[in-house]
């Protein structure tokens, strides 16, 4: 379990995160929901230790981790960070050199699943293809947790369907997953837990099936209550 | 497996628990004859992939179906649809009951005399059956 405990962060005088707490359970998909600028990406960066914060702590399986966390959690940012001149094959060699948890077989399986070509250069990939490769780089790491920042943004519907498929496959099973997305419709039936952010704090946090069961509400219904009120 | 075609078309609504919608889907498939008594059903992981749902949800749906005795799992063998006639009859009755209830609830607002209503239902029901029966696979369209 990853515990985000009371994280506070300011950019200049603006409070970006104002006491954010929630948990990411293993074997579950948790979705961070919030309008633009609500702090979703900042939370992911905080979990990864990529941005400092003023107060609070991140506890991973009961421990505060340093750089060991990179073998335990993989972070898939909202854009591909590999140099454009690299070929896909080269980028995978780079990953294999960098991470002990790199799983070559899974990478190959994903290359096939997403129909990617190893000889292609990263700079020549279309937006959708780049997004798939970006996902591949994160999912091919044998980590216990995966964080994905906006895996669906700017991607056509067929690629979206393919990416959605990943969520109901063995690639995700038993891992703890945190995603952020604007396109809730794509994942509405996939996620276990929703964490709604507003003004830098968690305003609602619920189990989606329980919400449907007890209140007969959809995630979108709750989003309307929270963000349009 | 012969039921595979139907799987991808399941459209879940956002307001009912997904696992219960999966249970409902199984019952419907059974009642319309797309699934058969005793048939082996996909594993939890396969079901997750087929219906594009979270494996946890698939697990929950199977647990619910086991509790309702709709599916049975013996030892290490894969789960199957029950052969129990009583359960199968009860499911059919349940689905018909629900459909009739929904129909009655919506038509009651109009306050139609019951004879007129029964006549209309009888006419519509037999007409649709003839249409569908006569044009099998022809993609018959209602105007």
Automatic annotation (TrEMBL), chain A:
Which UniProt keywords are given for this protein, alphabetically ordered? ATP-binding, Nucleotide-binding, Transport
Is ATP-binding given among the entry's keywords? Answer: yes
Q: Which residues form the ABC transporter domain?
A: 2-224
**An example molecular function term from Gene Ontology annotations:** ATP binding
- What PROSITE patterns does the database record attribute to this sequence? ABC_TRANSPORTER_2 (PS50893)
The superkingdom listed in its UniProt entry is Bacteria
Matches recorded under InterPro entries: AAA+_ATPase (IPR003593), ABC_transporter-like_ATP-bd (IPR003439), ABC_Transporter_VariousFunc (IPR051782), P-loop_NTPase (IPR027417)
| Keyword Protein biosynthesis in annotation | no
Q: One short Pfam family name for this protein?
A: ABC_tran
Q: Which PANTHER family match?
A: ABC TRANSPORTER ATP-BINDING PROTEIN ALBC-RELATED
Task: Give the protein name, as stated in the record.
Answer: ABC-2 type transport system ATP-binding protein
Q: Which organism is it from?
A: Paenibacillus algorifonticola
UniProtKB/TrEMBL annotation, chain B:
Gene Ontology MF: a single term? DNA-binding transcription factor activity
Q: Which InterPro entries match?
A: Tscrpt_reg_HTH_GntR, WH-like_DNA-bd_sf, WH_DNA-bd_sf
State the taxonomy lineage: Bacteria, Bacillati, Bacillota, Bacilli, Bacillales
Keyword entries, A-Z: DNA-binding, Transcription, Transcription regulation
Q: Report the leader peptide range.
A: none
Q: Which residues form a coiled coil?
A: none
Q: What is this protein called?
A: DNA-binding transcriptional regulator YhcF, GntR family
- Matches recorded under Pfam families: GntR (PF00392)
